[in-house]
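User: Design a sequence. Structure:
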């Protein structure tokens, strides 16, 4: 009877390709025993992971966390299946008049999260401080995949409140900025409405999106 390589490794391959195992691999490798999970909220997945990790640290469930995301195109073919948001030339032109969709990119990112006091005590390099956050859902909008400007406005307002900051002090916003004709205007509308709740000032906060350089990483876009 002939045995193949597939026969020997089928059980490993099957478990190794389960999406739920992704986070477990990291916990297994580094012997991490706290909450370990895959979060799938589409394009916001990695940011929701960061939000949940920060909440667990704040609640004392863990004293350190890893959060991140990854996007790989296993079959990067031009004639692959489309979902209707892709740009005609494969490039993302955030807030550009000629934009007609988003370009797909590949990449990964992860952050190590601790409370500020613990990071300072441990002598860690501190690259940024997360002062607050918030998550919500669009609810009923013009379509299942269409963003809701009111929900986005409320998201900014609550996040700023949780962070305890004055929106007039914000000098830059890294936006979602997919380059789609539907998404970009709604994102700007939500931001504008949120700022108007606090100030009449204009031209004081820059806005941009790294997607113009690396494309849209879908589940890993936030990180």
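Assistant: Done.
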């Amino acid at each position: 009877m002939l045995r193949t390589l597939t026969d020997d490794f089928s059980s490993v391959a099957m478990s190794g390709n389960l999406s739920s195992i992704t986070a477990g691999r990291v916990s297994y490798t580094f012997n991490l025993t706290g909450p370990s999970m895959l979060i799938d909220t589409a394009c916001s997945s990695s940011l929701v992971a960061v939000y949940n990790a920060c909440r667990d640290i704040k609640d004392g469930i863990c004293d350190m966390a890893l959060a991140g995301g990854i996007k790989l195109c296993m079959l990067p073919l031009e004639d692959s299946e489309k979902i209707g948001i892709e740009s005609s030339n494969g490039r993302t032109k955030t807030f550009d008049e000629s934009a007609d969709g988003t370009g797909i990119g590949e990449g990964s990112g992860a952050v190590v999260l601790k409370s500020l006091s613990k990071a300072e005590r441990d002598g860690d390099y501190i690259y940024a401080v997360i002062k607050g956050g918030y998550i919500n859902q669009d609810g009923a909008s013009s379509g299942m995949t269409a963003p809701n400007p009111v929900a986005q406005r409320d998201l900014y307002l609550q996040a700023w409140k949780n962070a305890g900051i004055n929106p007039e002090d914000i000098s830059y916003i890294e936006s979602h900025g997919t380059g789609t004709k539907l998404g970009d205007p709604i994102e700007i509308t939500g931001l504008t409405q949120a700022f108007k709740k606090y100030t009449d000032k204009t031209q004081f906060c820059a806005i941009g999106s790294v997607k113009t350089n690396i494309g849209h990483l879908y589940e890993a876009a936030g990180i």
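The radius of gyration is 20 Å. The mean pLDDT is 90.
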